[in-house]
């Protein structure tokens, strides 16, 4: 079996999703997805030249070939790793189809096939606590048992320096009021997380976290910028709320210090961005050495989402995976093989070869980015 071509297509949803297809001479082709962003398609085209004629079943070796071959243009992180991720996912799909088994079996077998999903509810423009409640209740009515809200934009309600990351007492008071109102509205049975989007100083993050401890949060995400691991350790040590980070980190090397210093309680790599299926399973396994939970960040189509769910099925420390497209009514229809990709807050993986899905070309063609053509 040999790789004959690699193509991409960009679909316009709430993000510009980059779909990847790897073709072989046996007509066993694989679907993948790379995290959206500038330059990804161009890097995939560069990678294609080194993969034509290769055996797609050698997934790990081809990952290393791509990774090492791109060192001169920056394969440690960023767009290069994102491009590699999409191709790697498609290679696993081919391997599963060739061997007639699901990808989660190839990754070591299942701990679970029912994958819990949380709905990202963002934040309402007015920042009003009751507006948050309306958003959260909407997804709970759809069956979700876990939700996340963004609390970082609230700090813009008051005049503050946009660069020094300090927040006022009024900001903190309002954030606490939002969380309190949402928790009272949804009760104790729904998991609730908050996202801070790297906005605060360590001291303010600690102050806020201490005031939020009464509301039984699933986690507090990215309270400070991700570059300084020791500062994140400081925050984690000063609160009982689980701290989560990882969407801006790449490969197991990017997670090494975070995990070894036990700077967080939950790691959240974005699998179509951070290195793909095998690399993110290695991240989960590293985290499990320290009893750190694994909760992938996810803003993908059903292709990237279900691919990520295969990793979630195959690691012991999985907690929950993100869904970020509640406002896209045709999201599930992008693929065939699932009448609903997410049902009652869970993805139930199929016992089918590869990723267990195929593209719904009719739906995708209606939502292509302007100027794009759907690959064959």
Question: What's a concise summary of this model?
Answer:
With 376 residues, this protein is an alpha/beta fold. The chain folds into two domains: 3-100 and 360-366, Enolase-like, N-terminal domain (Enolase-like, domain 1, 2-Layer Sandwich), CATH 3.30.390; 106-359, Enolase-like C-terminal domain (TIM Barrel), CATH 3.20.20. The chain has helices at 40-51, 59-69, 79-99, 103-106, 129-141, 169-186, 202-212, 229-237, 251-260, 271-274, 277-288, 302-313, 361-366, and strands at 3-12, 16-24, 30-34, 114-120, 146-150, 191-195, 219-221, 243-245, 266-267, 293-294, 321-323, 335-336, 346-348, 358-359.
Structure report:
With 376 residues, this protein is α/β, with parallel strands linked by helices. It folds into two domains: 3-100 and 360-366, Enolase-like, N-terminal domain (Enolase-like, domain 1); 106-359, TIM Barrel, CATH 3.20.20. It is built from 13 helices and 14 strands. The chain has helices at residues 40-51, 59-69, 79-99, 103-106, 129-141, 169-186, 202-212, 229-237, 251-260, 271-274, 277-288, 302-313, 361-366; strands spanning 3-12, 16-24, 30-34, 114-120, 146-150, 191-195, 219-221, 243-245, 266-267, 293-294, 321-323, 335-336, 346-348, 358-359. Helix 8 links the parallel strand 7 and strand 8 (243-245). Helix 2 packs antiparallel against helix 3, helix 6 (169-186) runs parallel beside helix 7 (202-212) and helix 11 packs parallel to helix 12 (302-313). The longest helix has 21 residues, at 79-99. The chain is globular.
Secondary structure blueprint with pairings:
Layout: E1 3-12, E2 16-24, E3 30-34, H1 40-51, H2 59-69, H3 79-99, H4 103-106, E4 114-120, H5 129-141, E5 146-150, H6 169-186, E6 191-195, H7 202-212, E7 219-221, H8 229-237, E8 243-245, H9 251-260, E9 266-267, H10 271-274, H11 277-288, E10 293-294, H12 302-313, E11 321-323, E12 335-336, E13 346-348, E14 358-359, H13 361-366
Parallel strand pairs: 4-5, 4-11, 5-6, 6-7, 7-8, 8-9, 9-10
Antiparallel strand pairs: 1-2, 2-3, 4-13, 12-14
Helix pairs in contact: 1-3, 2-3, 5-6, 6-7, 7-8, 9-11, 11-12
